[in-house]
Specification:
The complex is a heterodimer of chains A (about 40) and B (about 130). By secondary structure, chain A is mainly alpha-helical. Chain A has one domain. Helix content of chain A is about 40%, strand content about 0%. Chain A is built from two helices and no strands. The longest helix of chain A is centred in the middle third of the chain and has 9 residues. Chain B has a domain of about 70 residues: Arc Repressor Mutant, subunit A, CATH 1.10.10.10. Chain B has five helices and three strands; from the N terminus they run ααβααββα. Chain B has a three-stranded antiparallel β-sheet with strand order 1-3-2. In chain B, strand 2 and strand 3 form a beta hairpin. In chain B, helix 1 packs across helix 5. The longest helix of chain B is centred in the C-terminal third of the chain and has 37 residues. The chains are: A mainly alpha (about 40), B mainly alpha (about 130). Chains A and B meet through helix 1 and helix 2 of A and helix 5 of B.
Chain lengths: ~40, ~130
Amino acid sequence: MATGEERQDMLVVRRVIRASREEVFAAWIDPESMRDWM
Amino acid sequence: MVEYPSRAPDQLDQIFAAVADPTRRTILDVLARGPAKVTEIARPFPVSLNAISKHIKTLERAGLIRREVVGREHFCHLEPRALHRARSWLEHHREFWETRLDALERHIAAKRKRDHGDGRPSGRRAHTPSRRP
């Protein structure tokens, strides 16, 4: 779950999304989008 | 919006710290088969009895095991309730993020359909996972 470089008190959640990096990044940082999915 | 505590409760800190060590996890595996004396627990390990005693104390402090003194013998018992607390905490976070990330995937698919009229990923090639972690 966590690699050696990550902090030991950190919870890491990994998920592969069927979308391009650009689409995921845009949805992740856009406040309007976040209201929809978060 | 979800509010996160500034840090995990102390008992969870101790539980996760305790199970982070492979020797202590092996001790828990041994005790899952039934109660055992400290000397029996220590036997298969290539370390001193004192070192195993320290591991047992860590597991006791975390509430993962209970020690019972019968005469001169110390018997250790697994206390599954502490493990259930850890599992509940993990399950809560797994569910929370599974739900959000499912919604994120649906949001992206819907936006793509609105923007391009199809469900195909835009921009650079999307990941095509063989399995979901």
